[in-house]
Amino acid sequence: MTAGKPLSSAEMTRMCFIFLLISNAASVSTQFNGYNCDANYHSRFPGERDISVYCGVQTITLKINFCPVLFSGYTDADLALNGRHSDAQCRGFINNNTFPTAVLFSISLSTLEACGNSLVVNTAYGANAYGNMSLVQIGNVSGYIDTPDPPTIISYLPGLLYKFSCSYPLEYLVNNSQLASSSAAITVKDSNGTFVSTLSMILYNDSTYNQPLSIPMAGLALKTRVFAAVKATNLDKRWNILMDYCYTTPSGNPNDELRYDLFFGCSKDPQTTVFENGKSQMGRFSFEVFRFVKHRNQKMSTVFLHCVTKLCRADDCIMLMPICGRRRRRGGEASLDSPPAASGNAVITAGPIITRSDETPVNNSQLG
User: Fold this and answer.
1) Among candidates 251, 353, 261, 355, which has minimal Cα distance to 308?
2) 3-state secondary structure of 331
3) How are strands ordered across the β-sheet holding 225-232?
4) Cβ neighbours of 123 (radius 10 Å)
5) Is 310 helix (H, G, I), strand (E, B) or coil?
6) Nearest-CA neighbor of 292 among 150, 115, 98, 121?
7) Number of H helices and number of E strands within the chain?
């Protein structure tokens, strides 16, 4: 091209093509924003091949190719387990040390239903724990990862959905060592300063509270009595445990809308017995196991136990307990100048308790 000479039609076309390539490259670079993505492979909407599922011995790991997610107009914060977009614990995290960049999700088998994952128990013909071929119970864990729906009538962004599932022998999922018991740290202020105590709930076979609950492979028979104890660490004799409210859900999520109360205030399930509450550094109760009707098409049902618990000063616990059936004695009334000393509430969880519905109840202490 000579200076001052007009460009030919071919030269102008070539210049426009080069400009277009540069513009597209800049656009793709901006879109992928420094993540490990290749525009030649990842300038597309997501597909089934973009999720990898690893069914581990302790956790289920989900790995999603993040580049097509970016291309679709979303960020990693838009992906969540089972539609739980408002719960930070149900979101994944970015790993930009791989190619392509991935979003990772980790699901612990001990709390596998915490983010709405589904546990369905089926019977199949296969090898049991002893290597013999027989009918065995299989627990199938499944769920999905999706993007939120916009608050508008229409959207030009595609809705993303990734499904996953893992199957385990039920004997493995409900083995005594896998029975989960969550704990919660609770902070208490008193005249000597502030201290932290850890609350936990443990399930037992019988009223001696010596043998942790053992669930057979086939599950517990309905109406088997289970014994629960709430304990605390780092407490001196001035403080006791007070269980405000204990209830059950079919999932490990304490906020599950479907729940059945065991005791709350003066209301108590007829099959529930409270042995100790607010009077010592342990809370103890028992109840008969049942099945949730929502599991009507399954041979087994999952039951998770939750307790809303607090610590109260030993002398003040009585003032925080409900008055049921009679007036409290005047000597137990609190002074307006000295409100009862107590911590905030903590929710602790134990389970899953697996129940079956095809056999008559037995004494739980004989199971194992």
Assistant:
1) 261
2) helix
3) 183-190, 193-204, 225-232, 282-288, 273-276
4) 13
5) strand
6) 121
7) 5, 20
Cα–Cα distance measured from residue 262 to residue 252, given in angstroms and rounded to the nearest whole number? 16
CB-based burial of residue 55 (10 Å sphere; 0-12 exposed, 13-18 middle, 19+ buried)? middle
Poorest-confidence range of 112-121, 251-260, 286-295? 112-121
pLDDT reported for residue 65: 94
- C-alpha 139/C-alpha 166 separation (Å) is 8
Cis peptide bond prior to 339, omega within 30° of 0: no
3-state secondary structure 29-94: HHHHCCCCCCHHHHCCCCCHHHEEEEECCCEEEEEEEHHHHHHCCCCHHHCEECCCCCCHHHECEE
What is the CA angle 52-54-59, rounded to 5? 135
Structure tokens at 64: 């999603």
Q: What does the pLDDT average to over 267-283? A: 90
| Predicted pLDDT of residue 27 | 42
Which residues are bridge partners to 326 per DSSP? none
- List beta partners, residue 348: 307
Number of other residues whose CB lies within 10 A of the CB of residue 159: 12
Consecutive H or E run containing 6: none
Q: What are phi and psi of 345, to 5 degrees?
A: -85, 150
pLDDT at 49 over 80: yes
Main-chain dihedrals φ then ψ at residue 24, nearest 5 degrees: -65, -40
Rounded CA gap, 147 and 51, in Å? 14
Q: Which amino acid is at 238?
A: R
Cut 0.85: pTM above it: no
- AA letter at 5: K
